[in-house]
Specification:
Length: 100
């Protein structure tokens, strides 16, 4: 059985838990650094899985990371982030980003 998305979910959870321990005066830098570190770690997890499409999964994770950064910094409201996530999810399920 393939545990790739379970590892990605655990990476996302660990990143959000790490953000809870950051002091307020370093919060903006920590949001960007931690989310980009999660994105980089997810690249290595996806690269290890030979049966998944690396390009499509990384496009999805990049969109998810952008939504997460914008929401954590207060630029995007939570309702808008759910709408953006829904659009990203529908785009991904419709075949967006898949190599032919």
């Amino acid at each position: 059985m393939n545990y790739t998305w379970l590892y990605i979910f655990l990476l996302l959870m660990a990143g959000n838990i790490a953000l809870q321990f950051v002091p307020f005066f370093l919060y903006v830098e920590a949001v960007i650094v931690i989310n980009l570190a999660v994105l980089a770690a997810s690249y290595f997890v996806f690269r290890r899985d030979y049966f998944s499409d690396l390009r499509a999964n990384m496009l999805f994770m990049t969109g998810l990371t952008a939504i997460n950064i914008l929401t954590d910094l207060g630029i995007m409201s939570y309702i808008m982030s759910w709408i953006a996530f829904g659009a990203l999810f529908v785009w991904s399920m419709a075949g967006g980003g898949r190599s032919r």
